[in-house]
Amino acid sequence: MQILRFAQNDRRKRAVLNWIPKIKKDPDRYWRQVFFICDEYHEFATAGQNDPNGDEKFLALSREPRCIPIVATQSIASLHDALPGETWRTVLQSFRTKIFLTETNVFSAKTAIELCGKEGKANYNISTRGHDARVSLWTGKSVAHKANVTTSKSYNTQSDFRFDTKTFTELKNAQTITLAYDAFNPLPPMLMYLKPCFLDVNKSYFRQVEEGELSGELGSK
To answer: Which CATH superfamily is domain 2-19+33-123+162-210 in?
Structure first.
């Protein structure tokens, strides 16, 4: 039955896209949202310039008919291997919010790092000079009595990645690096703590960790 549903997937995508002219014709009417939910998405993803039913074409237009896609895949590498050429990039960019759990695959971790982007980091350099310097018997610090001591300070910024490979490979259970979109503006990449639905919602993440409730495997998607 599951295979049959995905065999009819192209027809369902066309049915959703057919809502676009209807919504434009009657914008004051309430149109319900449609959810496209798929686990192991790399097993069903389609893409290609010659494929009119490719997912990248559907996802590019899915916002207009109020379709909300939610997919999970083992890794970016799985999606890369399942799709031809570089079409995986087109499919991946269609998802505005991306949630990364522990990434053990080097390719997936590197791609996630690049998606999180870079930020400017400030560097300071302070130097002190003095002639005939010696160590003070009172303070134990170097002093220079016969010459002026000059201090120079230089400031520059360097662009570096926000996260490194170690951060992605050492994420613990229920920790993620998230690229979120609030429907108006993209939010900066951040470390987030998840609240599993099967645990007490009145307990904080840190209390759950302290009591060992998050020590089990929660999956790595």
So the answer is: P-loop containing nucleotide triphosphate hydrolases (3.40.50.300)
Q: Which residues pair with 177 in a beta bridge?
A: 100, 191
pLDDT (tens digit per residue) in 7-36 = 446 777 788 888 888 888 888 888 888 888
DSSP at 188? P
Please report, for the chain, the start and end positions of each structural domain, with discontinuous segments joined by +. Answer: 2-19+33-123+162-210, 124-161
**Does the pTM exceed 0.70?**
yes
Q: Identify whether the C-beta of residue 82 lies closer than 8 Å to the C-beta of residue 47.
A: no
pLDDT digits (tens, 9 = 90+) for 48-57: 666 666 788 8
Q: What SS3 class is residue 220? A: coil
CA distance to 84, 133, 168, 192, per residue, from 99 (Å): 23, 56, 11, 9
Strands 34-38, 67-71: pairing kind:
parallel
State the Cα–Cα distance between residues 147 and 96, nearest whole angstrom.
Answer: 61
Q: Distance from CA of residue 40 to its chain's centroid?
A: 18
User: Which residue's entry shows tokens 């914008």?
Assistant: 27
